[in-house]
Amino acid sequence: MKYVKVGIVGANGYSGAELIRLLLQHPYASIEVLISNSTTGSLLTEQYPQFQDIIHMKLDTFNINEIASRVELLFFATPSGVANKIIPLCLEKGIKCIDLSGDFRLRNGDDYVHWYGFEHENVEYLSKAVYGLAEYNEEKIRNSQLIANPGCFPTATLLGLLPALQGEWIDPNSIIIDGKTGVSGAGRKPKVGSLFSEVNENVNAYKIGHHQHIPEIEQSIFDVTGNKVNISFTTHLIPMTRGIMCTMYTKLVKKGTIDEVHQYYEDIFKDSEFVRVRPIGNIPATKEVYGSNYCDIGLYVDERTDRLIIVSVIDNLVKGASGQAIQNMNLVNGWDRSAGLASAPIFP
Amino acid sequence: MKYVKVGIVGANGYSGAELIRLLLQHPYASIEVLISNSTTGSLLTEQYPQFQDIIHMKLDTFNINEIASRVELLFFATPSGVANKIIPLCLEKGIKCIDLSGDFRLRNGDDYVHWYGFEHENVEYLSKAVYGLAEYNEEKIRNSQLIANPGCFPTATLLGLLPALQGEWIDPNSIIIDGKTGVSGAGRKPKVGSLFSEVNENVNAYKIGHHQHIPEIEQSIFDVTGNKVNISFTTHLIPMTRGIMCTMYTKLVKKGTIDEVHQYYEDIFKDSEFVRVRPIGNIPATKEVYGSNYCDIGLYVDERTDRLIIVSVIDNLVKGASGQAIQNMNLVNGWDRSAGLASAPIFP
Amino acid sequence: MKYVKVGIVGANGYSGAELIRLLLQHPYASIEVLISNSTTGSLLTEQYPQFQDIIHMKLDTFNINEIASRVELLFFATPSGVANKIIPLCLEKGIKCIDLSGDFRLRNGDDYVHWYGFEHENVEYLSKAVYGLAEYNEEKIRNSQLIANPGCFPTATLLGLLPALQGEWIDPNSIIIDGKTGVSGAGRKPKVGSLFSEVNENVNAYKIGHHQHIPEIEQSIFDVTGNKVNISFTTHLIPMTRGIMCTMYTKLVKKGTIDEVHQYYEDIFKDSEFVRVRPIGNIPATKEVYGSNYCDIGLYVDERTDRLIIVSVIDNLVKGASGQAIQNMNLVNGWDRSAGLASAPIFP
Amino acid sequence: MKYVKVGIVGANGYSGAELIRLLLQHPYASIEVLISNSTTGSLLTEQYPQFQDIIHMKLDTFNINEIASRVELLFFATPSGVANKIIPLCLEKGIKCIDLSGDFRLRNGDDYVHWYGFEHENVEYLSKAVYGLAEYNEEKIRNSQLIANPGCFPTATLLGLLPALQGEWIDPNSIIIDGKTGVSGAGRKPKVGSLFSEVNENVNAYKIGHHQHIPEIEQSIFDVTGNKVNISFTTHLIPMTRGIMCTMYTKLVKKGTIDEVHQYYEDIFKDSEFVRVRPIGNIPATKEVYGSNYCDIGLYVDERTDRLIIVSVIDNLVKGASGQAIQNMNLVNGWDRSAGLASAPIFP
């Protein structure tokens, strides 16, 4: 028996499809409603034939009353600028909301115009949202109606970086983050830059200095450590579908051996089943978390330059989106943290 | 509680690693022994870091007495020419054996020299082996001690082709199979032809007319339908890791509409949870079964040429190897056919 | 000094860009006009930064009078259904036209509705067009004003197949063509099916039985050999950018050893600098012609089934489009066949 | 007529094959000798079928006297640790040597043990070698008998970084280099880490803090600018065959707008035909230099962090190896810098 009825708004995107895959193996949640504006009326299997004989549902249009009668919790896997208009309606109806888009991640409403390019229509709700970085916000998440699920890059970045800041090992003003991502993060909407012929055999640096994940990362660093920082954050599109690696360069301010830093990380994450600190000398590769909810972290102290280099990897569609959303759903409902999320990575 | 203790010989190869991944999510089987000659003594996680914090085991050398004391069932994920020497020892100790290599698939011992290039050392055991194509051999498999798990191409080919032959829709002498495979089937042993730089942006036809899967396919066609056939079978290496597609060209001998042929296929597979006959007009792609135990089949009747074209796709490491091996383990133990195998495909 | 002034209509597509690359290294032709409706007014380097510091031109709109005053020869690298409207205007102005689209390849105007889905507006010009398969039509091409440059699949298919038919080695009714192509053939226009996330780690069979290249291939087979045939032709999208392989299955009707068939092919192509018949036992891979104008052919006689298997590979954007177009331009102008086309393939 | 006779030692590797491709289109140099220890006696086309009908040569073993009688210039495309033993013999015979390996790049012989893991056998020759970074060492190269061709990463790094240091725009101690490379740089020798199944859908950080290109880059920075620096240098293997991108993070010390910095770069490279400084706002992607000898540079001033971010891309087998070697051969022989190197990049 499944206890909680859930729905997905934006079921036709890649994060939506990944939510469906993960929810199918969840012991307590059942999918009741799938919403897609662009493909309303079609069968899910017309969009995603992999679900044939597994789940037979139609994609519906958004109707708040009908949805309210059918689900207790809604995932929003919508493009930027959509959820901010709809979520308040859902909250009023008593539906718990987990927003995978960025619409409720920033506390300062004005930032949406600057970083996202749209005007937020319900800024008064920003303070009600809890940032869903489960490893750092578990208690608040448990008691929230509205969870702003972290971005893919922020997830990889923050899990790798926060312990170094908490332990005051590094200079907060020295942080440089070099991100590499697969192209599924760009979604299923067709655009030239996401075509196979453009992405294959290619690396592309994009949005240098003005990526919308910058304020999200800086805000979380402040929340957890009290440091107001300006990070350097550069993202690269590389020829793969899934996976994010963040290579992070930081200046050590405390004399520390790799053993001490490594032990500190292990202590921080000793109860976090989805963060795996790699043994010293071992740096994770993205494929080693493929399809799973893990975030793997590797550490290197470069004595020639007094820098701590942190490498953090996730599957952008799982821990960077849908898996983390389910982790948050588990917290909200008081279930096992890893319910439905226990699969090992697929390799090769 | 897990009921049955199993081991894997050849745990360091890709099929071995995939067996581990799938067994970890199996409700009734527990992994007790991992054997690898090439990496004996190392930790599994040194070879496959994806398993950190999930399974902590050493890779051992093969010792029949120790193994016999620790497991009831052994998977052989070894290269061709290995299992034929060892399996008889294991059977004598009462260990059930599921061989993922080709060593017990052919009934005629001489064929091993011709098609595989080695001399089989225990030909008297060939008749004791049951061919593990579960959709066609279920009863025999249930009662067997030694299961010859089908090859990757034969699995895709036979599931797609046999109904057309059973229904006498096609001329058995007209069969042409054009196979496309990802490179993981070639294993983890380094060779020039498997290097990224050689495989990427490339298609390669190999072993034309003398692939070792030819006699296996022809033998099974004979077993199921009584037809002695010579097939044309050509395999192509394409730039992907997982996945096999077999496009099969056959001459229609019975006037049949696509609806009739399609219905016939649906009837044949109505109780087979791992075979999905696609709706008319819908041809499966390999990624739509990625990471899963499904075999998806698409059908097309070309009226211009009176040919039935059958497209069959599998994940070569799952339904084409380790997943089917677990399906066979389930039958041997009287468990649910789909125990441990219920995951949906990962897409994209 | 460059002797002939040329222009490209559809310069913003992949074939257009490839024409530019090849024309830049051509000794006798200079690019004077680049036309693109979708990106009129922009710089070529805004669309294709690889040309920075090499060619500095704007993309213009189509104006017949201005074009007529500036070029002697026009390449049409336009989508299907465009060139048929414009080319007659150009011919009237005395401009030689080489059409890389399918608009003038079929002699029967009605076929355009059936196979291409558009109504041809100038069917009376179909008989004036010469099919630009240079290895078979050289004399006619030399004297033509309008050349219908062959499609990518037809080029690979016909060069591999015609000798077997000319020599009457095979049954013309037995022809089955299994084509595999990179995705650049689908063009730069964004669509879901061409996205990296959909193509990577995937094989996709498409347009089974109704690909628009079927009538083109059958028409050419008739023209060269007098055989009216119905071919089976199935195309597969595989995860690469460039390259086509056609694996062709045919029934031998004449007893012939592989040596005899091979010798026959070598004789046919002994003066064709762009067709390389591989030594017996050697099957070509697509990457071995990457970036070049070669068509490589491998032959295999399967004695178990009395079939001749022919494998033919090209770079779809060069020999399958822009390279062959330049080869045709060379013939039309009486230049060396290989002017501007002599580069070796790039590997790896 | 070709004026200079050249040979290649290590012709069977990827850099060797790329030298052959480029030399074939060179107007003044002819290939007379191909040396390969691992495949002596075989035809080049057995190793690299792409050269069929283009160049017909055997791979020979190394015999100094015979080589001396047949060539004037030798390229060494050998693994680390080979050329240092052989090149002195060649120099004594009056053969000019261009070494694509690292054996003569470092001035301090002891560094070879530390960074390369071998003992250099002819340290007295290190001072005779000229570092072949043509854009910075042109005069010395012209007069040299022994050219140490730069490494792939150092080429991309130095061309991007040196102007910022020369202009004293940046703090020399702030340099962080994040490199991404295709796998062809790892060569054709089979190893697990270069297999398609391991590289595809994966990113891998390797040799963090101890890559052998670190001392080479630091030495060149010192030579050109007088700065003794310790750089942070991290390399990542990404799923592509060709291409290197270096993303470089540096601290601005001089107040400078992006316009001023950009102008400074344009001035430095105004006579360098192979370095293309991209317009402001435009960051290069690796595929935009594919197959060509270009190094493209993009610049970004991040005002939030006062950092100058420099992105530099090359084709690792061309500008990062064989193309630059030919550029050096051109200088040594007093030819046009771009003889044989004028091809535009191949895209897509």
TrEMBL record, chains A, B, C, D:
Gene3D superfamilies named among the record's database cross-references: Dihydrodipicolinate Reductase, domain 2 (3.30.360.10), NAD(P)-binding Rossmann-like Domain (3.40.50.720)
Keywords: Amino-acid biosynthesis, Arginine biosynthesis, Cytoplasm, NADP, Oxidoreductase
Active site: C152
Any Pfam family hit: Semialdhyde_dhC_1
Reaction(s) this enzyme catalyzes, per UniProt: N-acetyl-L-glutamate 5-semialdehyde + phosphate + NADP(+) = N-acetyl-L-glutamyl 5-phosphate + NADPH + H(+)
EC number: 1.2.1.38
GO MF terms held by the record: N-acetyl-gamma-glutamyl-phosphate reductase activity; NAD binding; NADP+ binding
GO biological-process terms attached to the record: L-arginine biosynthetic process
Pathway membership: Amino-acid biosynthesis; L-arginine biosynthesis; N(2)-acetyl-L-ornithine from L-glutamate: step 3/4
Role this protein plays: Catalyzes the NADPH-dependent reduction of N-acetyl-5-glutamyl phosphate to yield N-acetyl-L-glutamate 5-semialdehyde.
Protein name: N-acetyl-gamma-glutamyl-phosphate reductase
Species, as recorded: Heyndrickxia ginsengihumi
Lineage: Bacteria, Bacillati, Bacillota, Bacilli, Bacillales
